[in-house]
Amino acid sequence: MSDKQIEGYARALFEIAQAEDVADRVSDELFRFARTVDGSSDLRSALTDPGQIAEAKSRIVAELLDSKAHPVTVRLVSLLVETGRARDLGRIVDRFIATASEHGQAAVAEVRVAAPISEEQRNRLAEVLSASKGRPVDVKVIVDPSVLGGVVTTIGDEVIDGSVKRRLDQLRASLLAG
Q1: Is 157 exposed, middle or buried (0-12, 13-18, 19+ CB in 10 A)?
Q2: The three-state (H, E, C) secondary structure of 59-96, written as one string
Q3: Which 3-state string (H, E, C) describes the chain?
Q4: For residue 77, what pLDDT is reported?
Q5: With the CA atoms of 16, 21, 47 and 4 taken in that order, what torsion angle do they form, in degrees rounded to the nearest 10?
Q6: 25-29, 110-114, 132-136 — which is least confidently predicted?
Q7: How far, in Å, are 26, 82, 83, 144 from residue 44 at the CA level?
Q8: Given pLDDT bands bounded at 50, 70 and 90, which one contains residue 136?
Q9: Model confidence at 156: pLDDT above 80
Q10: What is the pTM of this model?
């Protein structure tokens, strides 16, 4: 799918979420769902299989999201899956988040942690990042066990790697060099 089509889908989804006054929540839920799909080859295959009928794909989405996500999120994901856009879900969601960020004038921080963090920790992290950036920062948390501990934060092109994995890699490199 072209960048222009990705932009069109993302903008349309954002306008729907904004009209329903749930853009922030939908943004978080879409982000988490897209990362889940990216991380599961079985789920990705089930949602992108051209031999699978649209209704079956929508049932998969409903089973995964119904009790956990806002109905607007479920409808938007189902729409993308039913129209054969599941393969581009990650790109559409990334553009959706960028559009939401531009609209709210907030930066988006992708934060990778080894284990889930509390809402209080997430809010504190958002406060610290907002203060350092001089504007609001919307924190999107990804649980990534490979981080081992600490936090890896990406805001735009900037990466702040405070992970245990990085520190271990640095220690290993210095031991091998010395």
Answers
A1: exposed
A2: HHHHHHHCCCCCHHHHHHHHHHHHCCCHHHHHHHHHHH
A3: CCHHHHHHHHHHHHHHHHHCCCHHHHHHHHHHHHHHHHHCHHHHHHHHCCCCCHHHHHHHHHHHHCCCCCHHHHHHHHHHHHCCCHHHHHHHHHHHHHHHHHHHCCEEEEEEECCCCCHHHHHHHHHHHHHHHCCCEEEEEEECHHHCCEEEEEECCEEEEEEHHHHHHHHHHHHHHC
A4: 93
A5: 40
A6: 132-136
A7: 20, 14, 15, 18
A8: confident
A9: no
A10: 0.66
All domains of the chain in start order, with CATH: 1-104 (1.10.520.20), 106-178 (3.40.30)
Structure tokens given for 106: 């907030």
pLDDT-derived band at 105 (thresholds 50, 70, 90) equals low
